[in-house]
């Protein structure tokens, strides 16, 4: 099976008009249309692998172009060739002598790398007949290590150290698999409190979430302090003192501003402030972490952290207390493995970013692997959940009692319903043609203040 050659790669621009109802809105992304560059690879024997990367609307066409530019590096290869030297293949994609100039390993080209490699991992897991998390959990530590590009991170984590972490976690692995199959992985919800939601909607969604068993909630902040105080106070009252609250500013502030603003929200006892400032400002995050530590508030970031080298520095600078990996921002599973192992060495809990479209479906595999094969701990750990657009996936996430239940279907859970792909393809899908016809260029209610 593994000798099958990949003979075709297609990529499509799929957009969902989520901005109409301000789903996903935050202080910086006021009108996101949750979207994906959706990749399908096909072998000479008709097997398919599915992959995607997430975007928020305009610009997806640029990611599609970048995927097309990478496709020549994949088409013609057999899965055997790829996975027998996955590190080499990762490098081929991320360090192509000409294309690396438009990165390297960041921005659009890294999103495209993620989409392509996600489809390769999906194909591999399908060929093995396992969900991706199980493929990873069953893999020999040495084989896992051979998928990681350690270039630029050996000052923080050597191959030998990574191997030792994985070998040490072999003990008790089966028990943790059984536990996950029974209980699932703990999750928190961001669905109640997008920035553009009214107080009434927030209350309704929070009431529903509490009745469904959610105990951890994230609220968007950062556009207007008075609004933040009102919303945080409302949600804290609703969830009570013992449930967990997190706040997310999506990069809105300068460093000093972040410290003063969050100090004013401290009485609502947030566990973390997420993305307080520019996602590239490592020393800024370190300063914020230091200033907020006496208030018991940690700093979380990662959804726009573009590669392992950035995460390495955040860890070295003690700039984050929660690491938020993302399945579609960095170089797929390969690069996420490096970050999970570094986070473990630096003793920083991983709480993945999910939501968007497809991000929950994908990242659940990585966090299950983290618990079973790396961290062996659930302390201070939880995976984000957002309740949008799961109906477009062939194997949507299963949430039970606020926990992710491990996926059972083979693959990386990336495959979308072909009917959804056709309907939402931009701009030719029926949904977008309809908007054009009605000249309804998606008018958003401007309730977000600047
Ligand atoms: C634009 C996205 O919805 C973003 O707000 C998501 C996010 O920050 C999160 O889920 O965390
Ligand atoms: Mg966020």
Automatic annotation (TrEMBL):
It is an enzyme of class 4 (lyase). The keyword Metal-binding applies. It catalyses: L-fuconate = 2-dehydro-3-deoxy-L-fuconate + H2O. Its EC number is 4.2.1.68. The keyword Lyase applies. Residues 199-295 form the Mandelate racemase/muconate lactonizing enzyme C-terminal domain. One of its GO terms (molecular function) is magnesium ion binding. GO terms for biological process: amino acid catabolic process; carbohydrate catabolic process. CDD domains: rTSbeta_L-fuconate_dehydratase. InterPro entries: Enolase-like_C_sf, Enolase-like_N, Enolase_C-like, L-fuconate_dehydratase, Mandel_Rmase/mucon_lact_enz_CS, Mandelate_racemase_C, Mandelate_racemase_N_dom, RHMD-like. Its cofactor is Mg(2+). Pfam families: MR_MLE_C, MR_MLE_N. Keywords: Lyase, Magnesium, Metal-binding. Belongs to the mandelate racemase/muconate lactonizing enzyme family. ENOSF1 subfamily. This is Mitochondrial enolase superfamily member 1. It comes from Esox lucius.
């Amino acid at each position: 099976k593994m000798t099958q050659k990949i003979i075709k790669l297609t990529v499509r621009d799929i957009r969902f008009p989520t901005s109409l109802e301000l789903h996903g809105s935050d202080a910086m992304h006021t009108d996101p249309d949750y979207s994906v560059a959706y990749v399908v690879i096909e072998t000479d024997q008709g097997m398919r692998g599915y992959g995607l990367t997430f975007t928020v609307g305009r610009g997806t066409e640029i990611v599609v172009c970048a995927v097309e530019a990478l496709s020549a590096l994949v088409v013609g290869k057999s899965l055997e060739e790829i996975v027998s030297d996955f590190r080499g293949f990762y490098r081929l994609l991320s360090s192509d002598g000409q294309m690396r100039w438009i990165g390297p390993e960041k921005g659009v080209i890294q999103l495209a790398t993620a989409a392509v490699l996600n489809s390769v991992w999906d194909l591999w897991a399908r060929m093995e007949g396992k969900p991706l998390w199980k493929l990873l959990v069953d893999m020999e530590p040495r084989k896992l290590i051979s998928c990681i590009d350690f270039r630029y991170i050996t000052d923080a984590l050597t191959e030998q150290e990574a191997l030792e972490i994985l070998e040490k976690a072999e003990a008790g692995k089966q028990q943790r698999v059984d536990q996950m199959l029974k209980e699932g992985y703990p999750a928190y919800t961001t669905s109640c409190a997008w920035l553009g939601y009214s107080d009434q909607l927030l209350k309704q969604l929070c009431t529903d979430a509490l009745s469904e068993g959610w105990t951890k909630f994230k609220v968007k902040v950062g556009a207007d302090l008075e609004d933040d105080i009102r919303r945080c106070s409302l949600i804290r009252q609703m969830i009570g003192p013992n449930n967990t609250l997190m706040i997310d500013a999506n990069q809105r502030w300068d460093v000093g501003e972040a410290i003063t603003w969050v100090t004013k929200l401290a009485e609502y006892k947030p566990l973390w402030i997420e993305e307080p400032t520019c996602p590239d400002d490592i020393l800024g995050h370190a300063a914020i972490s230091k200033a907020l530590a006496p208030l018991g508030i940690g700093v979380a970031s990662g959804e726009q952290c573009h590669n392992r080298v950035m995460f390495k520095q955040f860890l070295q600078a003690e700039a984050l207390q929660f690491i938020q990996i993302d399945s579609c921002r960095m170089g797929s599973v390969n690069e996420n493995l490096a970050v999970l192992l570094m986070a473990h060495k630096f003793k920083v809990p991983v709480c993945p970013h999910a939501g968007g479209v497809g991000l929950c479906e994908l990242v659940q595999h990585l966090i299950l692997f983290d618990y079973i094969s790396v961290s062996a701990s659930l302390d201070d750990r939880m995976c984000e959940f957002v309740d949008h657009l799961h109906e477009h996936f062939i194997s949507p996430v299963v949430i039970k009692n606020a926990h992710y239940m491990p996926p059972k279907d083979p693959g990386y859970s990336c495959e979308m319903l072909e009917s959804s792909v056709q309907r939402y393809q931009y701009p030719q899908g029926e949904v977008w043609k309809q908007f054009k016809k009605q000249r309804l260029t998606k008018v958003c209610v401007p309730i977000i203040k600047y």
